[in-house]
Every structure is written in structure tokens, then in C-alpha cells.
Amino acid sequence: MTSTVDRTATRTRRRRRPVMTLLGILLVSAGLVVGLYGAYLLYFSDLAAESERAGIAAEWRSGIEDNGAPAGHDAGAPAGHDDGIGTKRREDFPVVEGEGTLGILHVPRWGADYQVPIGAGDGPDVLDSGQVGHYTRTQPIGALGNAGLAGHRTSHGKPLREVHQLQVGDAIVVESADAWLVYRMVAHDIVKPHQSEVLNPIPPFEGATPGRYLTLTTCDPIYGITERFIVWAEADYWTPKSEGLPPDLG
Fold it and tell me: Strand pairing of 132-134 and 115-120?
């Protein structure tokens, strides 16, 4: 003989099954949405940003040629530069200022084809287009102090993905309209997002003194946003474009 309690428990379990099934479907659907969004960030946003970035670089190069600035090695370079390699200059360091695209970032360790535009500002309009962006609250590139650059590491062209590969002494080169500014990596750190002192005019690494610094900032770890990977570089020399390439790119 089945008790009233047994029949009630059976009916309760039957009512719960559709609810649990619906909950399971909703959880699976939510997982699919999150997965698809992740795929968008990791793949489709890269494709879009890489295309936009290439267009920005091409437009910038076309613009400086139209304005009469050399886009690369000048066939009329002074005697002594027949090899297309310019001289290292350390006096009268050029300063890169302005709006829009400021120049092109080159990092020899990441290959000769690594050429990423540098935009003025660090908002989504700059970073999500695959560029690195100059923190406008920091000093201009080439000036005394610390010029900060930000860039994505996981999505939107991920221009700073391999930042962890950089080693002390590596060249980091900024190509401006008429000069090459060559920096050398001097230190790195991993910090919390609120530690804005990494962009101080004198960076907070051991042994830092007043000088001309370039700081790269990006998220850490890869696929995470809980920390920031910081690379500090100090100005070494500059080369006029009219003489050709800087030795570190030659």
C-alpha cells in the first residue's frame, strides 16, 4: 500500500524535473553565449583590428610623404650612408607630439614586420583599432620624463601580446615623420591596475634617474586583467630618416 507521503514526494520530484531541465538549458545557452563572445574577442576582433591598423599605418605614411617628410631611406642621403644605415645621434633628441597618429612602433625582437601605429590617447577608439596609444597625461615621446604607451594583449590585434619576451637591452623604436627614436629596455615589473606610479616622470624601478623614458603597459596574465605587465625603456639615440634606417633596424 502506497502512503500519501510517498505519492506527494513522487509528484514533487516530477514537478522539479522540468524546472531542472529548463535551468540546465539556460546554463548551457549562457555558456554558449560566453564562448561565442570569447571567440569574437580572440578571432574576429583581431581580424577587424589588424585590417584597421594596416589602413591607419598606410594612411599615415601617405600623409607624411605628401607633406614632404621622408618615409624611409632617402636616396639623396649624405655621403657615408650608402649602406642605408644612418648615424646614432644623442644631442637634440626629437620630440613627437600632435593628434591622431603619432608614428609607428617597431620592436626588432618581434620581427621586421612588426609595425604598429601609435595613436594619441588611450581610449577604445585608439586601442580597439589595433594601435598602441599614448597616455596624453604623460610626457610626449622623446621628451624628458616618461612617455607611456598602452596596448591590448589578448584581443583587438593584441599588439603587446609578446611583451613578456622582451629582455634588458632590447631596442624599442618609434618611427616619427622625420626621425627614428631608439630606446633600450631597462626593466620590467608586474603591478596592480591602480599602480599608476609606473608612469611617473622618473619610473619606480631600482636605479632610475631623470631621463627620457618610454613605458609599455598591458594586461597580465594573458587572457586576464587582474594585473599589468610593465616594460620600461630609456632613450639611447635617434637617427634622421634622411640618412636611412637606424642601426637597430638595419
Answer: parallel
Angle 62-64-69 (CA atoms, 0-180°, nearest 5)? 130
* Model confidence at 123: pLDDT above 70: yes
Bridge partner list, 25: none
Place of cell 609607428: 104
- 3-state SS, 182-239, equals EEEEEEEEEECCCCHHHHCCCCCCCCCCCCEEEEEEEEECCCCCCEEEEEEEEEEEEE
CA distance readout (Å), 188 to 6, 136, 146, 214:
68, 22, 14, 12
Residue 77 clears pLDDT 50, i.e. is over it: no
Q: Tell me, what amino acid is at 23? A: L
**CA atoms in the 13 A half-sphere facing the CB of 231:** 25
Nearest CA to 198 out of 236, 153, 228, 162 is that of 228
CA distance 165 to 150: 17
DSSP 8-state assignment for residue 77: P
Distance CA 227, CA 172 (A): 23
To which H or E segment does residue 65 belong? helix 45-66
CATH no. of 52-249: 2.40.260.10
Q: What are the residue boundaries of the structural domains of the chain, listed by start?
A: 52-249
Helix (H, G, I), strand (E, B), or coil: what is residue 248?
helix
> All 3 cell numbers of residue 98?
600632435
Whether 53 shows a pLDDT value over 90: the answer reads yes
